[in-house]
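Standup notes, protein team

Yesterday: finished cleaning the Pendulispora brunnea set.
Today: 2-hydroxychromene-2-carboxylate isomerase structure.
Blockers: none.

Input for 2-hydroxychromene-2-carboxylate isomerase:
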Amino acid sequence: MIEFCFDFVSPYSYLAWTQVLALGKRVGHEVRLKPVLFGAILSALGTKGPAEVPAKRVYVLKDVLRLGSRAGITVTVPPAHPFNPLIALRVAGLPILSEEERVRVVDALFTAPWGRGEAIDTADAVAGVLGRAGIDAAPLLVQAATPEGKDRLRRNTDEALARGAFGVPTMFVGDEMFFGFDSFRELEAYARGEDLLAPHGEVLQRWLDLPAAAVRK
């Protein structure tokens, strides 16, 4: 199984979304979709998101546009960024959705901001996006506002953190973690049983045991 941890606010998550289901089919792995709250991950680790560093904010879009062009993926920008993805993430993570329904919901909510430049940061915006995709949003929004709906997103985020996630998109194959759209080639090799890390166990262990000689204050 490939567990795909994502946040709609992340353009790299969008790029990964457009490819991850096809990757899963190629390697014969089910893809489990797990929305997480990127902002909560950053807060837990005491780090800044790319959009909070002005120079990086500009670089990220350039990088995403280049990567999208190379992969044949249409990329545009949402009305504002960063935006609040909380409602959309809660809807996407609802336990009442079948996995087939979740795929439709996630696709609509990713394509709206990054493929068409539409907002998904309010309940009305989410309802409009899902409605245009032929999905009845009303019962989903009701469920997303319940304690159970809110808890699913919180648990997904806490579990990702506990397993070592520090950003999005993060993919897990068993206990092995892969980060970022640019890790897909290595992710696919690992899922096929062709891990390029295998010959380097001694070097990896030395790294894990290596002391830090300088600490930034």
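Follow-up from PR in the comments: The CA atoms of residues 207 and 214 lie 15 Å apart.
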